[in-house]
Structures are given as C-alpha cells and as structure tokens.
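Can't paste images in this forum, so I'm doing it all in text. The chain is below; anyone willing to post the predicted structure tokens underneath?
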Amino acid sequence: MKLLYLFRTLFVVTLLLAALTTQAQHPDSYRDDELLNLLIKKNVLSQKEADSLRAELAVKQQAKKDKENQHGITIGSRALQISGLLQTEYEGFEQTGVTNTFLLHRARLDVKGDINDNWNYEVYTEFAATTKLLDAYTTYKIADWLKFTAGQFKVPFSLESLIADSQLEFIDRTQVVNALAGRSTDVIGNQNGRDIGIQVNGSFAKLDDHYLFDYTFGVFNGAGYDVTTDNNNRKDITGRFTVHPVKNLSISGNFYNGVGFYGTPAKNQKRNRGGFDARYVAGGLSLQAEYDKGTDGAVKRDGWYAQAAFFVLPKTLELAARYDTYDPNKIVKTVHAQIYTGGINYFFNPWARLSIDYLARHEEATQIKNDVFEAQLQLTF
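Text version of the structure:
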C-alpha cells in the first residue's frame, strides 16, 4: 500500500509540474482547475486533496505576482507602464525668523511604454504644489549608436541634473546645478532642468559588456518646460560626450549655448554653460564630482562639488558626505558660498527610503547661523 501511495503521489506531482511548465509557456491553453478536475474524475485525487492543491497554487501564484510588481504597476504589458514617486519632507532652519515646515516635495505620476521594439514614449507629471507636465516625449531607436528624441525632456547638461530625483544620494541638488542647469536659482527660473526640442544620442565602440563612448546633441527653445511657445527667435544648442574607460566609470564634458529672456526689465541675453563631471561606482561605494561655469549677460559664474557615499549595511544603510561651493558673480568677491552636507539614507526595501541631511552653510558676504536640517520619506511604485 505504501508503495502504491508513493507511485500515486509521484504521478500527481509529475503531472502538475508538466502542466505548470506548459501553462507558463502557453498560458491560454491550460488551466490548473481543468487538470485537477481530470485527476478527480480518474480517482487519482480526492476532492479534499484537490482543494488543498488549489489553495497552495493560489498562494504561490499571488506571491509571484507581488514579487514581479513590487516596483510598479504594469498595464497592457509593454504598451503601458504606470509608476510614481512621492517625497514628503521636513525642513528645520537654524536661522532666526525662518519657519520650520513640512512640505510635499514631489508627487509624480509616470506613464510610459513601447510602441514597438524601437519606438517608445513617456509622459511624466508633477502634482505637488501646482500641476506641471515634466516630460512628454517619444524616442525612436535606429541602433544603439543612433536614437532620436522629440518633445519635452531633460536638457543633456550636468550629471547631477540628469540623475533621477529618486536616485540622488542627497535630498537637494547642489548650488551650482540649481543655478546653471535650469533649476531653482537659474536666471530663466525653475525649469526642472527641462526644455522642449529635439536631440540625437547614442553609444558606440563596445568593449566586453560596456560601451566606451556616449554622445548627445540637442536643439531646444530655451524657454523651459510646460510652455506653449518659444520666447525669442533663437534656438539653443547643447552637447554632452561621455567616456567609460572602465566599467562603472563615467567621465563627461558638456556645453550649452543659448539666449534667455530674463533680467529687470526682461530682455534677450546670453546664457551659456560649460562643464565636466565624473562618477564611479564599485560595490557599495559611489564617488561623484562636477564643475560647471556659466555666463549670463555680463555676469560670469562657476562652482563645483565632490561627494562620496557608502553602504555600511548592503542595500540598507548608506552614509554620504558632500562639499559644495558656488560663486554667483566672479567680479564680486564677497558672494561666494560653501555648503558641507552629511547624509544618511535608510532603505526599508527597494521602494521605501528615509533620508536625513544636515547642511552646514558658510557665506563670505554675511556670517549668520543658517544651517538646515532635512528629513525626507520617499516612496516609489
């Protein structure tokens, strides 16, 4: 009897494995219920045993779905993918008269997908404070070395500006990037580093498992994002070239030449940029540095930063430090500012993270106590 029971068990397991394997390859052809009903009809399984197997299969299938969808919701396979970003922040100011506050830093919804193997699109919207359309573009790939993008998207200038907000090691970007990459303190206003235009980019000269070179060249309005028309007859041009001498090391140079409509009163003026940057990642260690300079009308500006981050607990606890210096006017000698930032990032899991930063500020013009404490909870889906 024991031998008969063993053979019957092995037979059932073999049938189930074969059915599950076939169903994975042809999900519309086979169903677990049909197989179990057949085994009951043949008196191989009792109704109680079949119900128990159904329950086990349901649990395993749900666990598999949860694991596959932990980073986002996928609708219609490749055609439509929906994801999002939520960042809730607290700011505590040392400076007298400045109010400590909670704020909704970012609340974003990202919709993207593939039209075919070579053609994709993305629509990215910000809902915090006011609703803004961040990205709305389509990219067509002819080959790895030749891709065309048209619409509204990030201008290919500055490494830190191009890194996704959810992937930054610190809560805020540096002074020089905010001032020269179309962000919070740029003369053209906060454009989130974006503009409307076209670009061509690609990678070439593959060595082992990575490309040696990347390039990007773009033409933009220069008026920023979420606008209907250009504000002058000039078009701005930008370019970025990256070398990867070894895997996980990127060394880049970039430029931006254009005309912006700004000033008091506002008028068309020169707005040129140039810079270089580098990033290296090895295991839990990341190193990054960047230098940028700009000319706005008759004013010359420049700045740089260097930072390091390391996971003291793999994929869980990251410590980070950054030195950030910026000179908003090379002629005036008392406006240079420096910020020393220390940060802690704790990852509850791949999509939930708590960041704590302390910014020690030093300005040459005025010696005031204006350090800042920041804490941010980030959720991605």
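Confidence is low (pLDDT under 50) at residues 1-7, 9-30. Helices lie at 2-25, 32-41, 47-68, 159-162, 175-180.
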